[in-house]
Write a structure and sequence with these properties.
189 residues; alpha/beta; Rossmann fold; 5-stranded parallel beta sheet; 5 strands; globular
């Protein structure tokens, strides 16, 4: 049985580099035989987390959509750009709402996840990866694979077919995807 892999991009703007990297990662996972799905965080339309909203209206149903998607997959890949050294508010806000569900953390506990970042800058979003790794491991008890990739100069990194143009970068992406799929397979046994 093939692994079910959920891919999430941390930016939803038109032409987002994280979407391009997510799609490149999806192609690698598809080639490895995984069943892949994409979750659009913007489509969840979650309001900015606010305890007053939660007290007055409860947790938005879309947080349950995120929880259910995580539950239904063996592993996750999150691709984030870097905003001032941090993951995007879109990613953090979605997971903040998820944490407010009674069973939100149960859905993430011991779930394998791989992290990728993309940035036009020289570090490729590396600082955001380190923050996101700590956030997911500590607050959500996720199993973040050690392999990760920060694609620098991402506005120049993709070939016309959507793959990473650099052979070393493409091999690194394959390594990250293979690592999370391997961990998911081990967890399934």
């Amino acid at each position: 049985m093939s692994m079910k892999l959920l891919l999430i991009a941390g930016s939803a703007r038109n032409g987002a580099l994280s979407v391009k990297l997510r799609d490149a990662a999806r192609a690698v996972a598809d080639a490895a035989g995984a069943q892949t799905s994409v979750l659009d965080l913007r489509a969840l339309a979650l309001p900015l987390y606010d305890g007053d909203i939660e007290a007055a209206q409860g947790v938005p149903a879309a947080a349950g959509t995120l929880r259910d998607a995580i539950r239904e997959h063996d592993a996750i890949v999150i691709v984030t750009p870097e905003y001032n050294g941090f993951p995007t508010p879109l990613v953090i806000n979605a997971f903040d709402w998820l944490s407010r569900l009674k069973d939100g953390i149960a859905a993430t506990t011991d779930k394998p996840v791989a992290l990728l970042s993309s940035s036009p800058g020289a570090l490729g979003g590396l600082r955001a990866l380190n923050v996101l790794r700590q956030y997911l491991q500590m607050a959500f008890q996720m199993l973040v694979v050690p392999q990760q990739q920060a694609v620098s100069k991402a506005h120049e990194a993709f070939a016309a077919d959507g793959t990473l143009a650099d052979a070393k970068g493409a091999a690194m992406l394959t390594g990250v995807i293979n690592a999370v799929l391997k961990l998911a397979a081990q967890r399934r046994r």
